[in-house]
Amino acid sequence: MVSRAEREKKMILEKQVQLQKEEDQNWLELHAKLEKLEMLEKECLKLTANQRIAEDKIKHLEEKLCEEEHQRELIQDKTAQENLPKRAKSKKPFVKGAK
């Protein structure tokens, strides 16, 4: 009887040790996953900030391009208006039969 009780006690202690090891392992895995999650969250915030900066730069460049295109059109219109009177003055009227 005593040996049976001792065996059961030994088995219970071994089971407790095994459960404690599993709990410790689970805790280590959980801790590692939490650290990885924290790292990924920081990386996500960093990427989001970089994306916002890039989008702002793109918007600024698009606005600048639009303004430059507008200025180019104004210059072309002004040049066309300045050249119009010069062409009209330089052209000789066509006279039929004149040599």
Automatic annotation (TrEMBL):
Please give the InterPro entries that the UniProt record associates with this protein: Centrosomal_MT-associated (IPR051756), Cep57_CLD (IPR025913)
Cep57 centrosome localisation domain: residues covered: 1-81
Q: Which residues are in coiled coils?
A: 2-64
Give an example GO cellular component term for this record: centrosome
The highest taxon in the source lineage is Eukaryota
Regions of compositional bias (Basic residues) in chain numbering: 86-99
**Which protein, by its recorded name, is this?**
Centrosomal protein 57 like 1
